[in-house]
Amino acid sequence: MSSSSTFPTLLIFTLILKYITIHANGSCYTSIISFGDSLADTGNTKLVYSNSKLNPPHFLFPPYGETFFHKVTGRCSDGRLVIDFLGEALGLRISPYEKIKTNNVLEIGQGINFAMIGATALDSSFHEAQGDSSFTNASLGVQIEWFKQVVASICATKSDCKNILRDSLILVGEIGGNDYNHPIMFGKDWEDVESYVPLVINAIVLAINELIDLGAQTLVVPGNLPLGCSTTYLTIYYGSDKVDFDNTTGCMIQLNEFAEYHNRFLQVELNKIRDLHPNVNIIYADYYNAAMQFFRSPQEYGFTSGGLTTCCGGGGPYNYNSQLECGNQPSMSCDHPETYINWDGLHLTEAAYHVIYKSVFEGTYTTPQLNTLCSTSNVRAGNAWSSSVLSF
């Protein structure tokens, strides 16, 4: 699947440049700008397929979206993602980039989401050279180029752009997981894929530096989730003597160590960026340990159906079957997704994403603590999105 990286030159913009103070909307930020993959895509991939003759993939069919939206929205979950909860808390709407392109309307002061399902940190040309499968060419670098085109269209001067970005909360990821998922799922050993980690981190660092050059002041950079708790991988390595399993969680030790290696490497590089740009807020979001809370104690968080069973799947020891994925008939969804952590094998349920959101953006799972820079907890139902506003 591909998506054009050319922003229409004759685009007619409706510019709503709302420089709202913290007291006006209860938020420190006037917009959210998001880059990433399926953990953050709120409709871009769906719009690409809607505007093409390509056959839609399984995640663009029911029961995706059933819990909150009651229809398919292009999110890889039964409902909302972390970014949805963040936008709701800050009272900010975030529009998919593909919607802006299609409708020729841009509303600055709310937010733009460039994330695409299947996106990688490294360009698709790298993965093709390695013989890896690639779902999309919308890598992090491509998403940054899309953003630059938007910026060039709305900013008369570099100073204008810095003013807009100064008050924006920018999410760079989660990104990088698919750089590992694609090759491992299609047969490569994780030991071989481990050599990708420095390259993946370098791609993320380059993107962050480009955003800082454009004027970004506050960037949240999430780490990888615990790969070893994915029911996709647990199914692939079921019965294998090549892996070890944690006695407490049942997750694969080696793949969780792989994710932790990525996260440590990322944090080292983020510290270097902080040294170079002491006036920029670089925040590491610890998605890994935020998620490990409920993998270690699923019952404590209301996940009474256990931590390692897929809600929507096609059978097998973890209810995941790569030949019968969620959205493909006759796979079936569970009756109560809120009692499950895992939604479809790789992605989590809305309930699990809500725990991650609370832990990161209203809790202590950031470095430095985000809630000391800006409080999201003071914004409640008055500014929250309704399901009709969120549905694209």
Automatic annotation (TrEMBL):
Domain of life of the native organism: Eukaryota
UniProt KW keywords: Glycoprotein, Hydrolase, Signal
UniProt keyword annotation of Hydrolase present: yes
One example GO MF annotation: hydrolase activity, acting on ester bonds
Pfam family membership, one: Lipase_GDSL
Record InterPro entries: GDSL, SGNH_hydro_sf, SGNH_plant_lipase-like
Keyword hit for Signal: yes
Signal peptide, first to last residue: 1-24
Family the UniProt entry places it in: Belongs to the 'GDSL' lipolytic enzyme family.
Protein name: Uncharacterized protein
Source species of the chain: Tagetes erecta
